[in-house]
Amino acid sequence: MSDRTAKDVIGLDRDDLAALLAKIGEKPFRVKQLWHWLYHQGATDFSLMTSLGKNLRQSLQGGFIAGRPEIARDQQSVDGTRKWLLGFDDGNEAETVYIPDMDEEGGALCVSTQVGCTLTCRFCHTGTQLLVRNLEPHEILGQFMAARDALGEWPTPTDATRKISNVVVMGMGEPLFNYDALKKALLILMDNEGLAMSRRRITVSTSGVVPMIPKLGEETGVNLAISLHAVTDDLRDRIMPINKKYPLAQLMNACRNYPGLSNARRITFEYLMLKGLNDSLADAKELLRLVKDIPAKFNLIPFNPWPGAPFETPSLDSVKRFSDYLFEQGYSAPIRRPRGQDILAACGQLRSESVRERQSLAKARREAGILEEPHAPASSD
Ligand code: SF4
Q: Identical fold at 7-65 and 70-356?
């Protein structure tokens, strides 16, 4: 946590920094130097930024910080996954998860964009928490920088040796409901002279905020992932209420037109498998009909139970049958093993422990209106 009266320079882009430096009588060329210290070296102490000149160092020390969120809790799973609960200046908290790659060097950092979430996806533990607020650009970036601090990854390493080799914006919140802050953070994250994360290694996942999808592609060029989870509007309306506003046909159309798509650059469709609801072969066939003409790949995620969840995990056989079918039809469709289960770090499980649980199992079941029915309607081929 930082001095609340000081202004945080993290999250300021080059223009913002130039304006700030001009106000304290410094020349524009200092931006490049300061940028290097902040985003390449990861420095937080202005007094050590030796190339800046004594006066500038003193001015910065007097009224500014290069802050980080405070690590309120640091948990490590038996499988190496790490989850940080990060505290911001106003006392709000969000979670960030590092998932090391099992097979090779590197790993993915899963970043949050909101404290809580306005959406109420029924399978999501985060969605049981009311939205508190959007995160600011420095708080989104701060998660990445705090993770690099914790992993000892400064100065910015080369691509080949990075512990954080990918960033997935899939944590708490709907990223496209906080687009301006997200875009600013991403552009700083991708800047070659600083954090230097390639756009090809950044994926933003949305529940389907259709009007913002083209903007994301045009303005950032990052990879797109869709939390799909259902192949019919009927089921998707029930498990992801945003579908009532932006139904599947609109969502698929936005995907089809996402800028820069090719077979080498596919949209990832996240598909949470829920026993008896979306795990049949007929669902797999309908899924392929939906993504026709879209360069697509899939992540199959067997539902990861959390306390009070109104769903069950499908059998391994049905998940495998589903995956095999997609593979046979020429699509990548790996089954994602739940990671960090012992620390509730897996997909949809992120939520701040500081917020009291507000939904009981009975309430969740009633709201979902699902478990009363043995099977959700699935389209046939
Ligand atoms: S899945 Fe994402 S969008 Fe849906 S409730 Fe959870 S955090 Fe919000």
A: no
Task: Give me the residue spans of the domains in the chain.
Answer: 7-65, 70-356
Known catalytic residue: 124?
A: no
Give the three-state DSSP class for 324: helix
Q: Is the peptide bond before 295 cis (omega within 30 degrees of 0)?
A: no
- 7-65: which CATH topology? DNA polymerase; domain 1 (1.10.150)
Pocket test of ligand 1: the residue of 96, 117, 176 to mutate, having most ligand atoms within 8 Å of its CB, is: 117
- CA–centroid distance, residue 329 to ligand 1 (Å): 30
Q: How far is CA 296 from the centre of its chain?
A: 19
Choose which CATH entry (1.10.1610.10, 3.20.20.70, 3.20.10.10, 3.40.50.2000) describes domain 70-356.
3.20.20.70
Q: What is the Cα Rg of the chain in Å?
A: 22
Q: Which residue among 95, 136, 139, 286 is the active-site one? A: 95
pLDDT one-digit tens code per residue, 140-159: 999 999 999 999 999 999 88
Give tens-digit pLDDT for 79-124.
Answer: 889 999 999 999 999 999 999 998 778 999 999 999 988 888 888 8
Q: pTM of the entire structure?
A: 0.89
Ramachandran quadrant class, 278 (left: phi over 0; alpha: psi -120 to 50; beta: rest): alpha
Pairing between β-strand 267-273 and β-strand 223-227 as defined by DSSP bridges: parallel
Residue 97 identity (one-letter amino acid): V
